Amino acid sequence: MPASPSTARAINDRLALRLLQQEGPLTAGQLKQLTGLSRPTVADLVERLGAAGLIAVVGEAGERRRGPNAKLYGIVADRAHLAALDVRTEGVAVAVADLVGRVLAEASVPIAGDTGTGPALEQAVTLVERVAKEAGAERLHTVGIGAPGLVDPSSGELRDSTGLPEWHRRLVATLQERFPEARVSVENETNLAALAEQRDGAARDRDTFVLLWLGHGTGAAVVLDGALRRGASGGTGEIGFLPVPGTNALPSATNCEGGFHSLVSSAAVVSLAVECGIPTTPREQMSAVPAVRAAVAVVRATVDGGPGEAPTVNDAEGAVRASGTGSSLTPGGGGAPTRGSSAPLLPGGAAPAPGAASRTLGAEAPPPPGPARAARFLDALADRLAVGVASVVAILDPGCVVLGGEVGQAGGEELASRVRDRIARMTPLPTEVRATTLGGGAVLRGALLTARDRAQEELFTPKEPPPPPSPGW
Predict the structure, then answer these.
(1) Cys-Cys with 301: which of 71, 194, 315, 392 at CB 3.0–4.6 Å?
(2) Is 1 in a helix, a strand, or coil?
(3) Which ranges of 4-116 would DSSP assign to H, the alpha helix?
(4) Which three-class secondary structure state does DSSP give residue 93?
């Protein structure tokens, strides 16, 4: 049955808008070529979308070209503004963007663990208001939140989880009260990171993969046949509760200690580094990233220096800076500003103070570990990760596992290749193991992509005209 004229127009409009989102501004001729539609049809949809305030002329194609065929049409980016939040136990990061996803302003704020629920909520909401004001957004159309914990698939709300702050669960309602016109939603942080890796990161070429999140805690996200899988209760990927050998107890329904979490959480990785002789300072023991990054830098410096040449402190510092830990909100284009390697994201999205990267292995920090200790640490960490990855592979056969989060980014290819080699020996199922290209910034990026998709879904759907009034008698 052929589509009705109104349905055909809606399909053509969505196709043109999607191309303008993906490709940027286009001429009518380029739209005709990319859509396969006739010239009159393209002319009609350009006029229709312009009248709806969705597209506008943004320039001309070529300095020497003039006339209607040279006009470049683009999405009216300020038609709506979006906010994305990366909520962690220790703070929150916020980005505000326009309708095409271009980031206009962003900031983060730490929230101490002993902060009361009310003050914590006020800090988070005030940050959203401040960033929106800096972005020039008078109102927010859509707000996407990434947070740890389980999201109830029936209600879309965070479930009450032991160990997570109460302000996390109340944040959606508080934001909705403060921004009554906005569409506010929350999603598990690891799921959002997986969406970002699929769109812009290490899994761009994969329809089926698993993201193993390695940060303060651990989690997994499952993407099968291009779709994110949440499970019957929204708990797909709670890999921290996976019973594994090498721990002193079994996890419980309310505590993942004794599960895979006990092997690869940030605290567990720091303890492993100390066992392997990786020097750390008390401040560095708050996160596993410095130890992993230092070990990777030493291993890389050893390889680059050739056999028999031990790396110096300066060699290790240079390797750390070259490896970079920055995370882009819009990798691969898209027009948004990026965070470079000189401003690595800290948990919660904050950037360190200038010079902090050099101080990691500088005079205030312990000397870098020796090559043998660094390699032993990375090997031991890969052994632990392989236990969880092998379990995932045996059940799902995803073909690809991405090591995500701040620790996955710090480990890079040095850690990913070690896990890959172990999985090849442990399972007959061919599996790629890749390092994240987005790191800890993947959550904020995923929240932004989700908010943009939801806003565009609503705004790009043509409104049905009201039925004509019934004739009077």
Answers:
(1) 315
(2) coil
(3) 5-23, 28-35, 39-51
(4) strand
How many alpha carbons lie under 13 Å from residue 445 in its C-beta half-sphere?
28
Contact 198, 332 (CB under 8 A): no
Q: What is the DSSP letter of 69?
A: G
pTM of the model: 0.83
CB neighbour list of residue 276: distance below 8 Å, 6 or more residues apart: 369, 373, 376, 377, 380
Contact of 343 with 397, CB cutoff 8 Å: no
Beta bridge partners of 403: 212, 435
Indicate the burial class of 387 (C-beta count within 10 angstroms; 0-12, 13-18, 19 or more). middle
Biggest CA–CA distance in the chain, Å, is: 100
Query: Of 347, 344, 346, 422, which Cα lies nearest the Cα of 381?
Result: 422
- Residues in CB range of 83: below 8 A, 6 or more apart: 94, 95, 96, 97, 128, 131, 132, 137, 140, 142, 143, 144, 182, 451
Q: ∠ at Cα 369 (366, 374), nearest 5°?
A: 145
**Element of type H or E holding 432:** strand 432-435
Which three-class secondary structure string do you get for 368-388?
CCCHHHHHHHHHHHHHHHHHH
- Residue 14, classified by CB atoms within 10 Å of its CB into exposed (0-12), middle (13-18) or buried (19+), is middle
Contact status, residue 282 vs residue 396, Cβ threshold 8 Å: no
- CA–CA gap between residue 350 and residue 93 (Å, rounded): 7
Q: Indicate the average pLDDT of the chain.
A: 84
Backbone CA torsion sign across 19, 82, 94, 443: negative
Alpha helices, DSSP H, located in 73-202: 117-134, 166-178, 189-200
Q: Please answer whether residues 353 and 119 qualify as being in contact, where contact means their C-beta atoms are separated by less than 8 angstroms.
A: no
Condensed to tens digits (0 to 9), the pLDDT of residues 355-386 reads: 333 333 344 556 667 899 999 999 999 999 99
Q: How far apart are the first and last CA of the chain?
A: 37
Residue where the block lists tokens 């690809």: 400
Q: How many CB atoms lie within 10 A of CB 35?
A: 17
Q: Is the pLDDT score of 401 beyond 80?
A: yes
In the chain, the amino acid numbered 283 is: R
Residue-wise pLDDT for 256-287, tens only, equals: 899 999 999 999 999 999 999 988 777 766 78
- Among 184, 270, 256, 249, smallest CA distance to 220 is for 256
What average pLDDT does range 184-210 have in this prediction?
96
